[in-house]
Amino acid sequence: MALGSIILAGGEASRMGADKGALVWLDRRAIDRVAALARTAGAEALVTVGTADYGLPRVVEDPPLGGPVAGVLVGVAALRDLGCDRALVLAVDAPTIRPGDIAPLLAAGGAGAAFAGLHLPMVLAVAATPADAEADWPMARFVDRSGVTRLTCDPQARARLRGANTPQERAALVEELAAWEAAQKDGAA
Fold first, then answer.
1. Helix, strand or coil, per DSSP, at residue 183
2. How are strands ordered across the β-sheet holding 112-115?
3. How far, in Å, are 33, 61, 119, 167 from residue 174 at the CA level?
4. What average pLDDT does range 9-16 have in this prediction?
5. CA 99 → CA 103, 157, 188, distances in Å?
6. In sequence order, which ranges of the chain are alpha helices (DSSP H)?
7. What angle do CA 96, 37, 76 make, to 5 degrees?
8. CA 3, CA 10: separation in Å to the nearest integer?
9. How far is CA 188 from CA 40, 159, 181, 183, 184, in A?
10. What is the pLDDT of residues 71-116, one digit of tens each?
């Protein structure tokens, strides 16, 4: 099955106060970190969803700033057109997710999987997208109606998976990221 990735980047970032995708996390923009994660996970195609142009393939949800379900729907349509039958749905505000964090989602079969208590990240079989889905649905309804399996979330990964909506959450995740990357470099030396 061909895996593609949707990076939701269409929010207003009112709590963050800045474009979340353009924020630099240590040495790279959030959007670039999330795109690298998608590629590491095996995504053969990738689309960002939102009005900002980050230099990556992009689609705009209808209506613009229409919310996460609107973004997933337009992203799924774009990936379907690219020949993908599975979608790794990621949020641009979660650039510290590690490949191991999403491995259980990628291993799930059927309609896909998301973690209990979190709607994103999610792996979704394109065919599992509810035919009657509306752009203004709450994300919880979309996930439930898609039939994805809810997996237990590793408590150590929960903050990374949830991402950063405020400068304070971002500061904590940047600190964790710096420590993790330093440990990775020390282990490789």
1. helix
2. 58-59, 45-49, 3-8, 86-91, 122-125, 112-115, 149-151
3. 12, 29, 22, 10
4. 69
5. 6, 11, 17
6. 30-40, 68-81, 99-107, 139-146, 158-162, 167-188
7. 115
8. 22
9. 18, 26, 11, 9, 6
10. 999 999 999 999 999 999 999 999 999 999 999 999 999 999 999 9
Through-space distance between the first and last CA atoms of the chain, rounded to whole angstroms: 37
Distances from the Cα of 62 to the Cαs of 71, 143, 145, in angstroms? 8, 19, 20
Burial track 18-39 (b if 16+ CB lie within 10 A, e otherwise)? ebbbebebeeebbbbbbbebbe
Q: Please write the tens of the pLDDT for every residue from 30-73.
A: 999 999 999 999 999 999 999 889 999 999 988 777 889 999 99
* Domains of the chain: residue spans and CATH: 3-188 (3.90.550.10)
Q: Which two tokens stand for residue 34?
A: 């999330």
In three-state secondary structure terms, 13 is coil
pTM of the model: 0.94
- Report the alpha-carbon distance of residue 142 to residue 119 in Å, rounded: 9
Mean pLDDT value of segment 18-30: 87
Q: Residue 165 has what pLDDT?
A: 87
Cβ-based neighbours of 127, under 8 Å, separated by 6 or more: 85
Q: Burial of 62 by CB count in 10 Å (0-12 exposed, 13-18 middle, 19+ buried)?
A: exposed
